[in-house]
From TrEMBL:
Keywords: Kinase, Transferase. Signal peptide: none annotated. One of its GO terms (cellular component) is cytoplasm. InterPro entries: GTPase_ArgK, P-loop_NTPase. Belongs to the SIMIBI class G3E GTPase family. ArgK/MeaB subfamily. GO terms for molecular function: GTP binding; GTPase activity; kinase activity. Transmembrane segments: none annotated. Coiled coil: none annotated. It comes from Sandaracinus amylolyticus. This is Putative periplasmic protein kinase ArgK.
């Protein structure tokens, strides 16, 4: 049986970049078990003063955009120049079995073996849009461990992008070489979140298509407000497979961060993110307590039957559940 580490031992291990202890610290903060809660909160409180120094990058993309290949190319490029990189790759969790694929170390095999990198597959647990509920806490732990860059990969284009954009400095959207017709299907909200857009897989016979997609996306962005004041969202072409223009993408990410700092947006953005994270945690905690309340559970069982049989509207049932919880 593995001996439970004290909070002091966990803090010291994380701060000294002990990979085994880092893994155990992340497991603790990601746990939903009630018996782990106090320890996780104590650990996060101790590590918080050492966090906040990393460059935080979110990466998303349409299905097939090559996120994992791009992440590996970017990550190895950064470790090659001496940076330490953590990747929090959020996997989809099955709504039926509760299991997750957790295949990121297979998909990013080279980066996973890199001593200057740390790849953490994290099951989403059914959270909104596939974003792990504890991803933000994991990000803080990785920062406290001294990583220079922390990258959060989302499962794909969807609601999760808003959640990831709310915890990073720079949000990168990967796109595929495509025609104008395919461009019509892109969600405006996703593009509005992007600080950098990359048309990936710009290699071989797809180079011309990638250039067309870049031009079309650049034109579309002219009609949208920039995600960052004073910053014009660039659209770059790249080939993660061949390593083409990966350097240019990183320079764009650095340029965006420089702009955030110059206009005073970085500190403001992070303060706003902290407050938003607090209220998100409040909502999550209230939802957990509501479902755990015995009286609410008993009432909800009957109300579910009434709603299913159309005896009462869903909104009325919701009010009764809320009243039962708040009046206790």
């Amino acid at each position: 049986m593995r001996v439970e580490l004290s909070i002091d031992e966990l803090v010291d291990g994380v701060r000294s970049s002990d990979r085994a202890v880092l893994g155990r610290a992340l497991t603790l903060v990601e746990s939903n078990a009630a018996r782990h809660r106090a320890r996780a909160e104590a650990l996060l409180t101790r590590l918080l003063p050492f966090s906040g120094r990393a460059i935080r990058v979110g990466i998303t993309g349409v299905p097939g955009a090559g996120k994992s290949t791009f992440l590996e190319a970017l990550g190895t490029r950064l470790t090659g120049e001496g940076k330490r990189v953590a990747v929090l790759a959020v996997d989809p969790t099955s709504s039926k079995s509760g299991g997750s694929i957790l295949g990121d170390k297979t998909r990013m095999a080279k980066l996973s073996r890199d001593e200057r990198a740390f790849v953490r597959p994290s099951p989403s647990g059914g959270a909104l849009g596939g974003v792990a509920r504890k991803t933000r806490e994991a990000l803080l732990v990785c920062e406290a461990a001294g990583f220079d860059v922390v990258i959060v990969e989302t499962v794909g284009v969807g609601q999760s992008e808003t959640a990831v954009a709310a915890m990073v400095d720079t949000f990168v959207l990967l796109w595929l070489p495509s025609s104008g017709d395919e461009l019509q299907g892109i969600k405006r909200g996703i593009v509005e979140l992007a600080d950098v857009v990359v048309v990936n897989k710009a290699d071989g016979e797809r180079i011309a298509a990638a250039e067309r997609a870049s031009s079309e996306l650049t034109a579309a962005l002219r009609y949208l407000a920039p995600a960052t004041p004073g910053w014009t969202t660039p659209v770059l072409t790249a080939s993660a497979l061949e390593g083409t223009n990966v350097d240019a993408v990183w320079r764009a990410i650095e340029g965006h961060r420089d702009t955030l700092q110059r206009v005073g947006e970085l500190d403001r953005r992070r303060r706003d993110q902290e407050i938003a994270a607090m209220w998100s945690a409040v909502e999550s905690e209230l939802r957990h307590r509501l479902h755990a309340d015995p009286a609410v559970r008993a009432l909800a069982t009957q109300l579910e039957r009434d709603v299913a049989s159309r005896a009462i509207p869903a909104a009325v049932a919701a009010s009764r559940v809320a009243d039962a919880f708040t009046q206790r």
